[in-house]
Amino acid sequence: YGGVGKTRFATEIFRQIASDYDGGAAFVSVASVTSAAEVLTTVAVTLEIAQAHGRSALDALCTVIGDRRVLLILDNLEQVLDVAEEIAALASRCPSLQVIATSRAPLKIGAESEFELPPLELPAPDARTPEALIQFPSIALFVERAARVRPGFALTADNASAITEICRRLDGLPLALELAASRARILD
């Protein structure tokens, strides 16, 4: 899904586990990359790995990473899925490298494990009070984002059913909830 929060999820994973990798860790957004040929070059630039004349980005990365325990998070790969073969080659040549890739589609490489990120949980039908509703991630995100644009905004008994309905209609998709919440600046 687009807007389900893949980047936010990957950023949080990076924040929580990057320090566990003694060989280093890098979060690389490839959202602005338009061809598969540029992906590993972008990774090399992010890792500050110089490419010697006549050496590919793959070779440069493999030389520097080698057997070190490294985490590489590649965000937004959906527009350059053709890079899958190079990522597979990098992972096979660097046995302690762990790659996490976000994409709307799988890379379809041998060692890949897919994790489909679901939308945020919606309120249970019996949840009606603000105290019960705020426990649901979709409601909490909406309220948090609305409070950023409208100081003092809070979930109340008066607005609880409207906020719940917004979250349900937007299927708990984080991006949609954030966009809707931004309208709290001008709408009740």
Describe the structure.
The protein has about 190 residues and is mainly α. It is built from 8 helices and 3 strands. The chain has a 3-stranded parallel β-sheet, sandwiched between helices. Helix 3 (about 55-65) packs parallel to helix 4. The longest helix has 13 residues, at about 135-150. The protein is elongated and about 65 Å long. It starts with 5 loop residues before the first helix and ends in a 6-residue tail after the last helix. The mean pLDDT is about 90.
Task: Give keywords.
3 strands, 188 residues
Topology at a glance:
Blueprint: H1 6-17, E1 25-29, H2 39-46, H3 57-65, E2 70-75, H4 84-93, E3 97-101, H5 130-133, H6 137-149, H7 160-169, H8 174-182
Parallel strand pairs: 1-2, 2-3
Give me the strand/helix succession.
Answer: HEHHEHEHHHH
| Proportion in helices | 25-40%
Strand content: 5-15%
How widely separated are the two ends?
29 Å
Order of strands side by side in the largest beta sheet? 1-2-3
In short:
This protein has 188 residues and is mainly alpha-helical.
